[in-house]
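Field: sequence (string)
Field: structure_tokens (string)

Example rows 1 and 2, in order.
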Amino acid sequence: MSRESENMGLELRGLKKVLGGRVIIDDLHLVVEQGEMISLLGPSGCGKTTTLRMIAGFLQADEGQIVLAGKDVTNLGPDMRPSAMVFQNYALWPHMSAAKNVAYPLKIKGLSKIEINEKVEAALELVNLLHHKDSRPGQISGGEQQRVALARALVQEPDILLLDEPLSNLDAKLREKVREDIRELQRRLGITTVIVTHDQEEALSISDRVAVMNSGRIEQFSTPHDLYRYPATEYVASFIGSLNKFEGDFIDGQVIPGPGLVGIRPEDVVVSSHYFEGSREGTVQLVIPRGHFYEVVIARAEGIFRVFMNEGIPQTGDRVHVGVKKILRYINGNLVH
């Protein structure tokens, strides 16, 4: 094992997985630094949960290597890996108290009652649930059940924490709160963490880096900022955030025919009631309230522009001048700098 690999939290080398005669994961490579929190992000069927289950050991890789905390664990079962997983449905025993659910993996390992009690109390205190240690899952909220599942994973003192869509069963407001709790806890413990999600807002707000997956491969693995501002492929640009797309190129303030594609983020569109350099006239077709901003849909000769505004909002039917601050150019699906 190289010195570089020994310092890695997680390394996936050329993973491949075939299920039902279909290639689900194809030559996947990923390096996660120790103490880093990353998300596997993508639509249903892109292979993100399959990847997580291979990391955990619940699925065997057909090809490639999995290195956890410097150790090749490719052929080891889940109980032999330095990882712990929080499942999408939490997988709590309904007849057991929170404390007994958290204690379960320690009992399997054969720890003494005194040691188990100490570790369980510490884990429940870590997730602020010590007051619910005697409550069963059905007696506490969804967010509290999620924290019990998190405590059960953390009590095992894993080198790597794996989270499979951990917030998908919570309502929007609670999801935001629990998301912040998980991030704060992860930073405090400094534990390498991989989270699977299809929610881009969740991935961008919680992660140090995000791996955007498409058809069993990683399209781009970058910081949230770079994913949004410098998406490496047309797929990433379209999947992350909103995008105005036009066939051709963008020169002197207008789209002209040509090979490739131009992408423009809504916030990079400038709208004014007066002409300004580089602008072209358009007509407001729709004004949609979006809470703290408005989405304004404007038709120009070359197509539709969507722009986000929070002041100087035009009315439907208004003639306005539209310009662009920044564009993304793609040839054969790849970003051209």
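Row 2 begins here:
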Amino acid sequence: MTTGLFTHGACFRHATPPGHPERIERLKAVVEALDGGSLSGLRHFEAARANRASLLAAHDDALVEAIIGAEIPEGEFARIDADTFMSAGSAEAALRAAGAVIQAIDAVMAADVGNAFCAVRPPGHHAERSRAMGFCLFNSVAVGALHARAKHGLERIAVVDFDVHHGNGTQDIFWSDANLFYASTHQFPLYPGTGSRSERGVAGNIVNAPLVPGAGSEEFRTAFDDIVLPALEHFSPQFVLISAGFDAHAADPLASLELREDDFAWATDRLCDIAARHCSSRVVSALEGGYDLHALASSAAAHVQVLLQKSVT
């Protein structure tokens, strides 16, 4: 088998105002980095659109209706909060982003691919059950996790998030369900202000490993080895989802951690090893943040290279 690459042209039509860091060029850089060379073995899929029922498993009806029902003239923007905007193409992009994760999970469960990466935008991990925020409209990984439960009968679904910002949205959606596990490494303090070690969920199913500004490879790997991975191992997941943000890279302009490409590759390898032990290597990863184009592209390529290697072993 191989790694599936799920994306859609609609994700290039989610426009943001000039100067906004979450811009179309991000996805272009990622897709170009995954095209050919050592990654030529990827199997490409055009992402389907998430249906309303799948979205409502993770989000309130009012939020879903506000996003998919928004009517925004071409060339104009609707502001959701200080950082989050919609354009004429945003609703379709968000539906395809969530749909990519759903479709990737189905493909992995059917053994059509060994694992998968979803090259999509807008990102999702800040979107809470009832609120879009932080560049995010729908929480694609949370939608996917609940789809894995509803369609495939899986109970214990894990999301591991190494974006530099804490995924408050995923934590919010997972908080009260002991069979949904969320673990995050992130810079703290930093937007959105959540993610302290004391935030544990209803049954210790939330695991936060905050990192101080300036932390680098050693601190990140120690947090993974000492906090995230033992908790994930104990949880014994039936499916592993990765919120793959690459803005913890030293070159990223929005934060101040000091990670490099090989740190993301290392973390990916460790997560795949746990998935191999507990859930037949079922892994789906979705793009979150990353705002320096070169660092984003090279980090995503390093991440997907590990997925590809693991899919054929």
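free_text_note (row 2): DSSP finds nine helices and ten strands in the chain.
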